Amino acid sequence: MESLRQQKVNKLLAKELAEIFRSESKSLFGGGFITVTTVRISPDLSSAKIYLSIMATKDKAITFKLIQDQNNVIRKKLGLIVGKQLRIVPELMFFIDDSLDYAMKIEALLKK
Prior knowledge:
Layout: H1 4-29, E1 33-41, E2 47-55, H2 60-69, H3 71-82, E3 91-96, H4 99-111
Parallel strand pairs: 2-3
Antiparallel strand pairs: 1-2
Helix pairs in contact: 1-3
């Protein structure tokens, strides 16, 4: 069970990371459409798991690799935004959220 503090930090990080991905999409990630679906922060607020949905790209794996390569840049930009609200900017770990792809696959199977 997440504490109220964790829930607030999750929402803050999701909002600010979504804005970073929206504004820096062309310059850092090749122009793909990247959506932050879920953020889960550890109880000590030192690390965060960020689940991303990647759309409108030719190859999701390449875009995801670009995101992982730019992890330090993303964390620095996040630190500039939330630095007054959080004492420590959490370590960011990115994961692909494939729940939408899975749902579409299930729906296609059910239609047969």
